[in-house]
Amino acid sequence: xxxxxxxxxxxxxxxxxxxxxxxxxxxxxxxxxxxxxxxxxxxxxxxxxxxxxxxxxxxxxxxxxxxxxxxxxxxxxxxxxxxxxxxxxxxxxxxxxxxxxxxxxxxxxxxxxxxxxxxxxxxxxxxxxxxxxxxxxxxxxxxxxxx
Length: 147
Fold this sequence. Notes:
- By secondary structure, the chain is α+β, with helices and mostly antiparallel strands.
- The chain contains four helices and seven strands, in the order βααβββαβαββ.
- It has helices spanning 11-21, 28-35, 80-95, 109-117; strands at 2-5, 40-47, 50-60, 63-71, 99-105, 121-130, 135-143.
- The protein starts with a strand and ends with a strand.
- The model has no long low-confidence stretch (mean pLDDT 93).
């Protein structure tokens, strides 16, 4: 497996992965826009040339916001999301971010465990944030990445 920054050339594969991972996937146009967004950083893990997972973060001044972490269903439990999160945290350290935030489905215990493993803590709840199915989001924050 190899990890590298993503570019607009990867948008179609990302859109396919979105459809397989999320009930309300981002559109191809949204992905293309985000991959050209100067405040965004996206990384992908490739297994035998195919996108097995990706993660992205937007950076505004000294704050980071993780937009998405997706791993192909058949590639889960192989450390892909962990590797991607480490890439984003490395960017956070390099950029001297004060904190990084994200939202995660309250019922996604695996993702919450991954974020907690890397020092994220729950800081609040967004009622009915997700649709299909309707679910609360847990807001999580990591202060001073790398310290």
